[in-house]
Amino acid sequence: MIKSLNTAATGMKAQQTNMDVIANNIANTSTAGFKKSRAEFEDLMYQTEKEPGAISGANSVSPTGVQIGLGVKTSAIHKDFAQGSTQLTKNPFDLEIQGSGFFPVQMPNGQIAYTRDGAFKKGPDGRLMDKSGNVLQPEVTIPPDAAGVEISQDGIISIITGINSVQQQVGQLSLVSFVNPAGLRNVGKNLFLPSNASGLPQQGVPGEAGLGYLAQGQLETSNVNIVDEMVNMISAQRAYETNSKVIQASDQMLQQINNLR
């Protein structure tokens, strides 16, 4: 059995995973707060026929050895948390994090999740929540008679109830940071959950302790660059085709062996 058949098959599988990641990036080009991913690979075990440095004669050793690689596997899919572009919406409940940090929201099961998507809505009870109905934490309730809402860059929420009324503070937004945000677990709906790799959530006021500031009336768009993803897609396709040609060539070699008389 020629090892290159299985080796090239691992290459095709790896490039298929790579293409899946690229496709997800492209599909979420218009998703607010989306962070692109990158597939990372590592080589598999090696079949060692001669150890490097093995004795090859009197007072001499092999300078290289003979080690044959057995393929590749996907080692990680890295999430890139680089800042996305800004989209102006002028919606008073749309918030962009300019810098690092996440909005904490409470899911229906009571668990706290984290998101970069700042497209919040006012619920039927006046509480701010995301598109899926997860309530922003700490809870902020906008009174029904509020005529205007202002959110400062450090997260202070103020309202006015009339033309001549004085601003009233109704809440304070907080952001959360992680030592390793790339270690967060994706759960869909623009939400992340902490894991052993991400570290514990560190809550603070926007603009302090390394957290970003808030910008009202605008959103952070996806950080996916279509041109880069198209180039990556072409590269993955060519690598997949090349691995398939290795399998074809290996099959032809086996045919030559079978045809020996």
Q: What does this protein look like?
A:
The protein is of the alpha+beta class and 261 residues long. The protein has 2 domains: 3-81 and 224-258, no CATH class; 86-220, no CATH class. Helix content is 22%, strand content 32%. It has 2 helices and 22 strands. It has helices at 3-27, 226-258; strands at residues 37-43, 46-50, 55-57, 60-61, 66-69, 72-79, 86-88, 95-98, 103-106, 112-115, 121-122, 128-129, 135-136, 148-151, 156-160, 168-172, 175-177, 185-188, 191-193, 202-204, 213-216, 218-220. It has a 3-stranded antiparallel β-sheet, with no helix packed on it. A 3-stranded antiparallel β-sheet has the order 14-15-16, with no helix packed on it. The longest helix has 33 residues, at 226-258. The protein is elongated. The relative contact order is 0.20.
Number of domains: 2
The dominant shape is elongated
What is the SS-derived class?
alpha+beta
Rg calculated over all Cα atoms: 27 Å
Strand order of the largest sheet: 10-9-13
Average the pLDDT over all residues and give the rounded result.
92
Proportion of helical residues = 10-25%
Strand/helix succession: HEEEEEEEEEEEEEEEEEEEEEEH
Number of strands: 22
Tell me the span between the first and last alpha carbons. 19 Å
Poorly predicted spans = none
Portion in strands: 25-35%
Q: Tally the helices: what do you get? A: 2
